Each structure stands twice: as C-alpha cells, then as structure tokens.
Amino acid sequence: VQLQAFGGGLVQAGGSLRLSCAASGRTFSRYVMGWFRQAPGKEREFVAAISWSGTSTSYADSVKGRFTISRDNAKNTVYLQMNSLKPEDTAVYYCAADGEWGYYSASAYDYWGQGTQVTVSS
Questions:
Q1: In which element (H, E) is residue 88 found?
Q2: Distance of alpha carbon 19 from its chain centroid, rounded?
Q3: CA-CA-CA-CA torsion sign (11, 106, 20, 51)
Q4: Which of 29, 77, 100, 118 makes a 20 to 30 Å CA pair with 110?
C-alpha cells in the first residue's frame, strides 16, 4: 500500500489544521492506521491510531482532547484534526498503515507515507 499525507502548514498557536492521508490499494479498510510525528533531533513518536472499522481510537497523552483521528474507508483516507495547536506540536507528521492495535511503536507499522510538515508559531 502507498500512503500520501498532506495538509500540513504554518499556523499560529491556538489554531487548527486537518491532515489527510490517502492510501492506495484495496485492503485499506483492513488496516489499523496511525499518525506519528518527528521533531528535529527527536525520535518518531506515536500521536494517534484508529481501528480498521473506525470504532476504536487511541491517542498520546500529549494530544488527547485536542486531536481527533478519523477515517473514511470508502475514500481510503485517514484524517487527523488538530485543534488548539501548540508550538511543541511542531514536527513532520507521518501516516502509517497496518499497525498492531495496542502497540504504539513505529516498528509496529508496516507502511509509511512521506510526511507533511506542521509548524506552530508562538
């Protein structure tokens, strides 16, 4: 499966962005999908995940209550709505596919998109 993330940009603190990740292939609806982020000099970290059906979601504590992950299996797309953005949310955001539910390491996912830059100014 190929993934393409887009929707990043520059936003002021307190603002919002919506990231999208479009997937190719017929098996998208079977995959656990996740969003990760990587800031300069830091390791890639888990942000959010959604089950194949969309009925279960999981979030990192740092984004809980501010970010919402969702998916549209008919469009092979997963979204990350980011509200109340903070400067510490600045990072390259990656979508990932075929993860293991309950595992939050990047190594648990098999497919990765190219990343989209999110910059939050103070």
A1: none
A2: 7
A3: negative
A4: 118
Nearest-angstrom CA–CA distance, 53 and 73: 8
Contacts of 74 (CB under 8 A, 6+ apart): none
Q: For residue range 52-76, list pLDDT tens digits in order.
A: 999 999 999 999 999 999 999 999 9
The label of the residue with tokens 């999208």 reads: 20
SS3 label, residue 108: helix
Instruction: Identify the bridge partners of residue 92 per DSSP, sorted by sequence position.
Output: 38, 117
Name the nearest CA neighbour of 66 among 5, 11, 113, 6. Answer: 11
Amino acid at position 10, single letter: L
Tens digits of per-residue pLDDT, 75-118? Answer: 999 999 999 999 999 999 999 999 888 888 999 999 999 999 99
